């Protein structure tokens, strides 16, 4: 097995992140520094990342309803609560599939499967990520139409999105809009709304692919079953085709 795949299967990082670890000189096999990305790991080899040995774990997948004020990270140097803190019973070294901002709530998948993570977050696979945003301002078909063609944020155009106007409150000058995107760039949803003159003051991810938050209160989590995992894999494969 190639070294980057081995690291991904061990739940340390995705394949792309594993390649970065190798390039930084943080990976050894049997005490020898790995310099080639194509290096193969054989049965019995001892692989270490940053001096710590890693092992292939059973692949696990969890669905979390992330509350507001929790960091979507494995750890935080400022001592803030992370999503990992919300799953204290999980022994495997899991990490979030993508991120939600600290003040964004809703659906987050956590796993130790690097290949699965790559498949879920890569824009080419067009996995639906559904958000419900409360915005300041009045949402209309006219001001939201640019989102369906793609808007430029941080110098790069977004892929076309879909929207549904759920509510418009003229008295309070605010609206509730559902937005469906396929990407996961930094603060993307907030920046997309801002580009059309609407400022997000509350945001939640309500669906990811075939998954939703039915039965999960904020802070609750559950393990995904084989059918749910298979449906997510199949959704990505069908988009590639």
Automatic annotation (TrEMBL):
Per the UniProt entry, the Enzyme Commission number(s) are 5.4.99.-
Which GO BP terms, alphabetically? enzyme-directed rRNA pseudouridine synthesis
Tell me yes or no: is Isomerase among this UniProt entry's keywords: yes
- One Pfam family recorded for the sequence: S4
Record-level GO cellular component terms: cytosol
According to the UniProt entry, its GO molecular function terms are: RNA binding; rRNA pseudouridine synthase activity
State the source organism's domain of life. Bacteria
Is Isomerase among the key words of this record? yes
Assigned keywords, A-Z? Isomerase, RNA-binding
Name the NCBIfam families for this protein. Answer: pseudouridine synthase (TIGR00093)
Q: Which family does the record claim for this protein?
A: Belongs to the pseudouridine synthase RsuA family.
The name of this protein is: Pseudouridine synthase
Q: Which organism is it from?
A: Streptococcus cuniculipharyngis
Q: Recall the taxonomic lineage recorded for the source organism.
A: Bacteria, Bacillati, Bacillota, Bacilli, Lactobacillales
């Amino acid at each position: 097995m190639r070294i980057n795949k081995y690291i991904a299967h061990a739940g340390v990082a995705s394949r792309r992140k594993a390649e970065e670890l190798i390039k930084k000189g943080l990976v050894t096999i049997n005490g020898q520094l790995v310099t080639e990305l194509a290096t193969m790991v054989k049965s019995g080899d001892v692989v270490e990342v940053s001096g710590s040995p890693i092992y292939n774990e059973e692949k696990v997948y969890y669905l979390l309803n992330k509350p507001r004020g929790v960091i979507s990270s494995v750890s935080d140097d400022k001592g803030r609560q992370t999503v990992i803190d919300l799953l204290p019973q999980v022994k495997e070294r899991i990490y979030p599939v993508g991120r939600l901002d600290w003040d964004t709530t809703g659906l987050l998948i956590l796993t130790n499967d690097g290949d699965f993570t790559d498949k879920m977050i890569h824009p080419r696979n067009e996995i639906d990520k559904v958000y419900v945003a409360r915005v300041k301002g009045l949402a209309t078909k006219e001001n939201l139409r640019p989102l369906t063609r793609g808007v430029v944020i941080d110098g790069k155009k977004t892929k076309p999105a879909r929207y549904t106007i759920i509510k418009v409150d003229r008295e309070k000058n605010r609206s509730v809009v559902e937005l469906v995107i396929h990407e996961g760039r930094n603060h993307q949803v907030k920046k997309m709304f801002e580009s059309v003159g609407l400022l997000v003051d509350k945001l939640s991810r309500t669906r990811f692919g075939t998954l939703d938050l039915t039965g999960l209160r904020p802070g609750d989590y559950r393990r995904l079953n084989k059918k749910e995992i298979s449906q997510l894999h199949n959704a990505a494969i069908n988009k590639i085709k």
